[in-house]
Amino acid sequence: METIARLAREGRAEVPVYAIGADRQVATRSFEVAGSPLFVAEGIFAAEIIEQCRHRGLLAGAYALRRPRGTTFVRRLSRDLAEQRKAPGVLLRRGLALLRAEPAVLRRQAGLGAHPAAAGEVLRRVADLLAAGQPPRH
User: Fold this and answer.
1) CA distance 92 to 86
2) Of 8, 88, 91, 122, which is the most exposed, with the fewest CB atoms less than 10 Å away?
3) How far apart, in whole angstroms, are the C-alpha atoms of residue 64 and residue 115?
4) For residues 132 and 47, what is the distance between their CA atoms, to the nearest angstrom?
5) What is the 3-class SS of the chain, one letter each residue?
6) From its phi and psi, is residue 84 left (phi > 0), alpha (psi between -120 and 50) or beta?
């Protein structure tokens, strides 16, 4: 949360670099939003900070990407295999477990304040925010 607040205030922050295969942070790097009026925080845990971002006046929108579960499964498995994130059997078992859990994950994210939406809707909403010049911070 503090990193997001720093990005919004200063336009730059040190962010963690993770080694997914090692299941841990391995370094940090400098990240800059380069003068953009918005930045996107994404990931499975992004919904956990929606309320804090809203409370601090840092939230322009919160979305949970809704796509066909099979598409998500194939994309995730292809990416993870290509990046050799774990052994193929582990990736397949994990992918199937995530496929089954996806509806509950989406419900939980919605309960935390994320609006479930297809990718096209999210892109349109972000484009509308940019066109309106909102919000006036990063």
Assistant:
1) 10
2) 88
3) 6
4) 24
5) CHHHHHHHHHCEEEEEEEEHHHCEEEEEEEEECCCCCCCCCCCCCHHHHHHHHHHCCCCCCCEEECCCHHHHHHHHHHHHHHCCCCCHHHHHHHHHHHHHHHHHHHHHHHHCCCEEECHHHHHHHHHHHHHHCCCCCC
6) left
Indicate the domain borders of the chain.
2-132
Structure token digits, residue 30: 């400098």
Which pTM does this prediction carry? Answer: 0.76
User: 95-133 pLDDT, tens per residue?
Assistant: 999 999 999 999 999 999 999 999 999 999 999 988 887
The whole-number pLDDT of residue 124 equals: 94
